[in-house]
Specification:
Blueprint (H helix, E strand, L loop, with lengths): L2 H25 L10 H8 L2 E2 L12 E3 L5 E3 L9 E6 L6 H14 L10 E6 L6 H15 L8 E4 L4 H11 L1 E2 L1 E3 L4 E3 L3 E5 L5 E6 L5 H11 L7 H9 E4 L4 E4 L1 H34 L1
Parallel strand pairs: 4-5, 5-6
Antiparallel strand pairs: 1-7, 2-3, 4-10, 8-9, 10-11, 12-13
Helix pairs in contact: 6-7
Length: 284
């Protein structure tokens, strides 16, 4: 068992415990013998993150950004791939961990927000304000430590839950609000979309391997960013929609190795032929 795999298992366990804890806190203490209330089980079952690869975001939906300006979602698309995060800015638990995982991964790649890609963070909480968004943006920019990236981060709020659902339903992000403790139970992860607003990749959990995130952005940009090495890696790695991870594509590696072998053998034969002809001419 690799360290990365173990880390993912622990992160998933943490998400499940935390999600369940939000409802357990409202339903009262558990003495170990009391079965989970049906209402709690039903609520937890509603918290899902389904993959809708290829789905088109509703770019005509209107949001308020951290400056207080109201714009259609299309205003943030058109030139670069976009990383999408659904959360809420005053979240006391899970959201902060997702933000930290994202920023940590972004710091490990040479792409910069506002240049090669954009980040859109939606608030699923209609009570979050533009001031809350501005404060969260300042916090994230300080952690990211790339001041030139400010124009690449967009933190958006909505006036109603129904409006947010337009995006959440397309993304496959299902969440539940617990009225008793005033908190949302929601899944953890990020989504990458093309410049046209089509969903291409999902990365689940609290940590996002830098290599997976980079490859997701290269694919989301339709290979318009990245180096030749990235193109090779895309052929060597395969996106697994069941896990939201990139895995080694063995057949692609075998094909690549076969091509390299043929090229090397061809080069060796060419060098041998040239030397043989030179030796024959010298002997004459």
């Amino acid at each position: 068992m690799t360290t990365r795999f173990l880390g993912r298992v622990l992160a998933l366990a943490f998400v499940l415990v935390l999600t369940g804890g939000i409802f357990a806190a409202a339903d009262g203490p558990d003495n170990g013998d009391t079965p989970v209330p049906k209402t709690q089980s039903a609520a937890i079952a509603q918290v899902r993150f389904d993959q809708n690869l290829g789905a088109q975001l509703p770019l005509d939906a209107t949001f308020t950004d951290e400056t207080g300006a109201q714009k259609p979602l299309s205003a943030y698309f058109g030139d670069r791939p976009v990383i999408l995060v659904l959360s809420y800015f005053r979240c006391p638990n899970l959201c902060g961990l997702v933000y930290s995982g994202l920023v940590s991964s972004l710091q490990q790649i040479d792409f910069t927000a506002g240049d090669q890609f954009d980040v859109i963070i939606f608030s699923i909480d209609p009570t979050d304000t533009a001031a809350d968004a501005a404060a969260k943006k300042a916090e994230l920019l300080a952690k990211y430590n790339r001041p030139e990236s400010a124009d690449g981060w967009h933190l958006l709020t909505v006036d109603s839950d129904a409006q947010m659902k337009k995006v959440a339903d397309v993304v496959g992000f299902s969440y539940v609000y617990n009225e008793k403790i005033k908190q949302y139970a929601h899944p953890a992860g990020i989504v990458v979309a093309t410049p046209q607003g089509k969903l291409t990749r999902y990365l689940y959990g609290l940590e996002f391997p830098a290599n997976d995130l980079r490859l997701s952005l290269v694919e989301g940009a339709e290979n318009k960013i990245g180096s030749p090495v990235d193109q090779i890696l895309l052929r060597c790695f395969h996106y697994d929609p069941n896990t939201g991870q990139y895995t080694l594509a063995i057949m692609n590696i075998i094909r690549f190795a076969g091509i390299v072998t043929v090229l090397v053998m061809g080069f060796v034969w060419w060098v041998w032929t040239k030397r043989r002809k030179r030796s024959e001419n010298t002997a004459i």
